[in-house]
UniProtKB/TrEMBL annotation:
InterPro entries: SpoIIIAH, SpoIIIAH_sf
Biased composition annotated in UniProt, kind: Polar residues: 35-45
Residue stretches of biased makeup (Basic and acidic residues): 47-59
Chain residue ranges for the region called Disordered: 35-59
Pfam families per record: SpoIIIAH
Source species of the chain: Clostridium tertium
Protein name: SpoIIIAH-like protein
Amino acid sequence: MTKKQFGIIFTLMALIVCVGVIAARINKTGLNDPTDFSQVISQQGTEEEKDKDKDKDKETLGSQDYFFGLRSEKDQKDAITIQNLDALIGDEKTSQEAKDLATNERLEKTMSMDKEGRIEVSVKNKGYEDVLCSIEGNNVRIVVKAEELTDSDTASIQEIAENISGISDVIIESKK
């Protein structure tokens, strides 16, 4: 293999990794991100339209704020946890045993975050507007934006969560 072929293969692999990272970020936030530019444009209108839809917007924003707030809080906690684990791993004064434990905990946290994202996407694909999933220990907590959930809805969401996470203790809540 020549240097030119190696360079082409390496470049293509780097592009694949970049596209994968971008796709993961897009799938993580979904299409319901309130900071999405298309939603900002669609919410702009004349003053008359805004006055007419004021009450309706308050209800919608209330639920969006709820999910946005929960998601922000969860992401901040996850980021702080990973940052602390990275600092512990990178500290020269930390013993090798503590570094190994921190590395394993970081790996578990990363895998948990991946499973949460996959559960959220799978449940959204069932037709729900917004979903938030968190895995804490041996519990999976799923909050779904819906008026109410039927027994079949709950069963299908629980099946998705069990298949992806491998945890059978699933708490499902609906939020209007």
